[in-house]
Amino acid sequence: MHDRRIPEWLRHAPAPSVRGFAILAGTEAVARGTLVSVFPLVMYHALQDARGVSMVYFLIGLASLLTGLMIPSLVRFVPRRWVYVAGTQMYAGGALLMTVGRPETAIAGLALFTVAVVTTFVCFNAYVLDHIAKIELGRLETSRLFYSALGWTAGPASGVFLYGWWPAAPFLIAAVAAYGMLAVFLVMRLGNGRLITRSRAPVANPFAYVRRFLAQSRLITGWLFAVIRSCGWWIYVVYLPIFAVQNGLGDRLGGIALSLANGSLFLAPLMLRFMQRTSVRTAVRTGFLASGGLFLLAGLSGDIPAVAVLCLMCGAVFLILLDVSAGLPFLLAVKPSERTEMSAIYSSYRDVSGILTPGVAWVVLLAAPVSGVFLAGGAALLGAWGLATRLHPRLGQARIGVQAYPAAVAALIPDPAEPA
Q: Would you call 349 helix, strand, or coil by DSSP?
């Protein structure tokens, strides 16, 4: 009798849905979006050197990469939900460290915040692969970007404005958003994910599953798409503000440009419709071709800063098209028994791009201005456009069901009344 008074959602946790994951991603977007344009300014003001900023990002990227690769081993001893909770606390701790205002605490806060990103990202993707069908992954990516649009659109501009008004303000907002992220996660009651019984014992070496990744060419191709796309965003987020400061365009232009570009996230449903009417392959190739060409044009017009910034902003719109489509080739190729391990591999694209971009930029800046970094990014994006020719034309489309098979076959047989 007492059971009747207990709400149904308390007795039986609802199955996680696309909307629930999108809300969780949207909450994270507030924390990251508020600080994404503030971090480069803080680091540049603290070090007063673009090459020094590149070196700090390079070292932090190495630490984050190692952390991401260790998470699959960690979740064998620590429940996945506690790893995710720890990630949200690192978000808050990194943001609060930045409020101290010292160069060493700024570097430590950036490192902690970056490790938090990869920690939560590995767990998030593992949960997605546990609860969302592969045919729904495209809709999830679109919903995730749509719900994240407010944080990524309003966050960068408001972050730099708040930083100019009171330096601690954007970091406090990010810490509050991190605790909101924790609250959404607890309400969703995701637990530790589904248990998949393997036909073999789990590997003892945390890096041994890299061999499984290297043995699957589809996973390698999808991972390279994610790395190169992320390199494009690194260039836009880190080096556009530095380019603006060096050319007298002001500290706030980088945040404003990022907010305006991220406004295209509201077009994510239209981008999904374009991908569905064409194919994943067409969407991926279009995004890489257009963004690569515009980044090259920005590098060539470095002597005209306003034109370069405009080209980068237009290129970022196509990077968002890649956010919708370029992650699907990897996610669609993952086997159920390798969800956690391959989620760690996939999440490493952030860290690898965080190592490659400042590393290459550091070398480029030895002989060229910041606009040379835009040229290097454009060349990489065009290289990915060429690599996308290897994608299957029907990738991501629904398979023909058993009941629909006779009708599908009949549709392929020409009508005898029609001319041959």
A: helix
